[in-house]
Amino acid sequence: MLSKSQIKLITSLKQKKYRHQHGLFVVEGIKTIKELLLSNLKLHKLYTTESFNIDAKDEVIVSDKDLKRISFLTTPNKALAIFKISKPQSVNETGLIVALDAIRDPGNLGTIIRLCDWFGVTELICSTKTVDCYNAKVVQASMGSLTRISIKYLDLETYLSATKIPTFIADMNGENVYKTNLPKEAILIMGNEANGISDEIK
Predict the structure, then answer these.
(1) Nearest partner of 201 among 191, 65, 38, 88, judged by Cα
(2) Residue 86 has what DSSP assignment?
């Protein structure tokens, strides 16, 4: 049985300010939850209709009706987990770094995280205007890749002006990326869906 305080906490995590206030975020779906359980992320609590056979103190068996009350999805999956947000580390300036300038769509950010994972990019820098990577839709779209990518939110303009790494921007008027040899250590900046890269960053 779910308590009122549990329901209140879970529903509050829909909002960024409460996710960061509590240091927690929501993950839904058995496959993604299982992948995150195998990662370095710390589980806070798991609410499920079927046992995952983990430590009893971390698991709460709920009914389909209760799961629907706390789920962020229109059609709830069989489980909802709350994980702790990892403490941010400094940027590791080795290899290719992808930087995002005000990406707003959660699905787009989730896809970019997944693509970074696919191409072996482990560092992702986000401007403070970029959607929160712990947004439930981002987590869902990233399909577990969130655990393998180091994501930092910072003042992108300040960071870029201080770094000595070669920096490139993705621009419609730029050179063909397939005919360009990028250095092994570089920063590739991608811009907002509607407006591209801001003038300040350019």
Answers:
(1) 191
(2) P
